[in-house]
Amino acid sequence: MIATVYAVLFYVATLLLVVGVGMKVWKYATTPVPLKIVVSPAPRTRRGVVLRMFREVIFFESLFRSNKWIWIFAVLFHWGMLIVLLRHLRYFTQPVWWWVDLLQPIGRLMAFVMLAGLLGLWARRIFQQRIRYISNPSDHLMLVLLLAIAGSGTLMTYVTRTDVIAVKSYFLGLFRFQIGELPLDPILLTHLGLVALLMIIFPISKLMHAPGMFFAPSRTQVDNAREKRHISKWARNLPPLPEGIPKKEEG
Amino acid sequence: MASLDMNAEGGPKFVGDPLKIPAIECGAMMDTNTFAAAPEHNEPLGFPGELLDNWQEVAIAKMGELAANNRAFKVYLDTCVKCGACTDKCHYFLGTGDPKNMPVARQDLLRSVYRRYYTFAGKYFPWLVGARDLTKDVLDEWYTYYHQCSQCRRCAVACPYGIDTAEISMAAREILDSVGVGQKYCNEIIAKLKKTGNNLGLNPKALAATLEDLEEDLEDETGIAVKIPLDVKGADILLITPSADFFAEPHIDGLLGYAKVFHSAGVSWTISSYASEAANFGMFIGSYENMREVSWRIRQAAKDLGVKRIVFGECGHAWRVAYSFLNTLAGPFDFLDQNYPIPQHILEFTLDEIESGNLKIDKSRNDEFVMTYHDSCNVARGSAMGRKEGGQFDVPRAVIKAVCNNFYDMERDTIRENTFCCGGGGGLLTDDLMDLRIKGAKPRMTALQQVSEDHGVTHMAAICAICKTQFSKVMPKFGYEMDNVMSVHQLVANAVILDGQETEAETATAEETP
Fold it and tell me: Would residue A89 count as lying in a domain?
């Protein structure tokens, strides 16, 4: 019964995640950009923009320059999470890819890095007056959700072991639309339930910053307005303005 | 907090850290409001004269229209994670401590309403994501705090996602205008420009008379007939410069500098009475249509006069509009000479002339000044110059160093792409916002004070009409004189020796020789 509920949950969550993010991204991509609004330091070539975005995505360059504390916690959290997620590929692939195997030892430790990053970000949100001021309940709850996911996962890795072989065969089954046995371990069920919740709220929450940042004109435009005319579709269709200088009467 | 030391040696001195973050003080600036526009200011711009009866409906629809027509607006409203990296970047926050002057909080004034009407979470769980209805109080709050943003984009550099508060601020002002709530300063000026061709409302006759007076001044000073031509058909270069260059100090001295450079370069040039304004306040109110109409005049003037090139004078946001938007708004400029940048900045022109050795320069004529340079925010973060990336920082400095022996930069986090706004940009250069302007100038003034103490800097050069006006007004509050702010081309004008011009040294030698 619970195995079926979770199966439906994950199918729905995946669908909402993919369709939701897809629709949002489509909307971003098709919304016109009326003007060149690139912000310094601005590359003058497409290649420069790709490098700039690479540095932003990999190293959080702007954040590094603007706030070291947030940068440290953000890097710990995001990089920790990335490696933890990659490590999780072992539960969805058979045979496990060699590089996922390589990640296994470090991936297990990264759970703590991720938790440390999250706790740091939350501490700033609670104790730093300015950030507390700009925080809504959802901003706190998002951190709570991520902490609960990371916390329950870490518990299963280090404290109350769960039957990962069974979990793996359950998820491999889901790929073939077969619902197998899911261990009824409360920590596992909490972990999975929260992950599904995260997937569902992804497209309607600030988690959209991940795909969204690739559509910020201030960073993704090439600084070449003088060389290449930029014009949006709706601007092209504006009624033309009169040619020539209107003659005025003397006096 | 940085503080004013009234008992310092040699007069009151401002001491402290320009980046010092104040404790937040809720509501500190809630009563600071700029004068509202009257119907005669709003209507020529295509806006309702006064607040519409169905303003709420119109404003919400306008917000949706903006989200559909402007990717930046939509993406920026969606992607903020409230990390807080921008919270200490706004000069108005640093100067006032009002938390609604923190960039993210300023965005949230509008984001909260957008969420309420246009997002799932805001429609069904408003309390969770801080969404709120658009009430009259909210509209008033927008008016207050979106007119405490100078759209300088310092926060956009800091944001990990490139969220640009200026875009939100412009959109908010556009929504306000669309329901009949305009700002007097901006809208009156745009209306004036549409009538006369410049922000001052200076008619062609008055402009001609002014320029003749300036020609006389130049001849008195140099003994050479340096022209400042107006409406000369067939000239090579059309100079588009802020109208402040015709009447305000130290702006005029910059204009005299351009004239000397053009004279020495031996090019034919002209000013247009039809497009006698570089500034484009259409940007401040976020109105594409108004910005386009103002830009269109420049195209028509260039065509009418049959010029080959367009050069812009020293004006900050004007250069942003010129460099980044002009080609979009009034292009393509296929009728101009394609061998030159279209448009070109006067500093690019002057640096080329300096580097090719066409100008005779005596740097020692600026020895009485120990200079620093204020990067104007719109030039620094919204435009470029020259052929190399970062030219908008390096070209002005190269020109200053070529005409001046003493130059020191201010603290790195307060210059170049991290520069502070002067405190009067974005349509806030009006006396009814003087309190805000003084507080907003504080970070820049503190950085200046630092470099004055460390290196004996006496003067600060700028290349923006707004910066120059703002600084000459607020510098006295910080222990400086009005004329401690200078035009970059004022320094050029001081140092350039025209062909055939008798210098003091030559005169002295001539007297000694029997």
Answer: yes
Q: Decide: B463 and B487 in contact? Cβ < 8 Å.
A: yes
Residues B253, B493 contacting (CB under 8 angstroms): yes
pLDDT at B312 over 60: yes
CA distance B368 to B406: 9
Residue with tokens 């080329």: B352
Structural domain boundaries, residue A172:
2-13+45-223
Q: Which of residues 1-30 of A touch B (CB under 8 A)?
A: 24, 27-28
The predicted-structure confidence for B344-376, as pLDDT tens digits, reads as follows 999 999 999 999 999 999 999 999 999 999 999
* CA–CA dist B396, B375 (Å, integer): 9
Chain A residues lying within 8 Å of B325, measured CB to CB: 35-36, 225
Distance in Å, alpha carbon of B360 to nearest chain A alpha carbon: 31
* Cα–Cα nearest to B288, from B170, B153, B143, B114: B170
Nearest C-alpha in B relative to A55: B160
Q: A132 in a domain, yes or no?
A: yes
Taking the C-alpha atoms of residue B113 and residue B313, their distance in angstroms, rounded to an integer, is 40
**How far apart, in whole angstroms, are the C-alpha atoms of residue B474 and residue B95?**
14
The answer to whether residue A72 is domain-embedded is yes
pLDDT of residue A247: 75
Q: From the CB of residue A123, how many other CB atoms can be counted at a distance below 10 Å?
A: 14
Q: Tell me if A29 is assigned to some domain.
A: no
B-contacting residues of A 230-249, CB under 8 Å?
Answer: 230-232, 234-235, 238, 241, 243-245
Predicted pLDDT at B509? 56
Average pLDDT in the B247-255 region?
A: 96
Q: Domain tally for chain A?
A: 1
- Please judge whether A139 and B82 are an interchain contact, meaning their C-beta atoms are less than 8 angstroms apart: yes
Is the ipTM higher than 0.90? The answer is yes
CB contact under 8 A, A136 and B384: no
Interface of A with B in 149-208 (CB under 8 A): 204-206, 208
Q: What is the CATH number of the domain that holds A173?
A: 1.20.950.20
Which stretches does DSSP call E strand in B215-351?
237-240, 269-271, 309-312, 344-345
> Where does the pLDDT of residue B9 fall: very low under 50, low under 70, confident under 90, or very high at 90 and above?
low
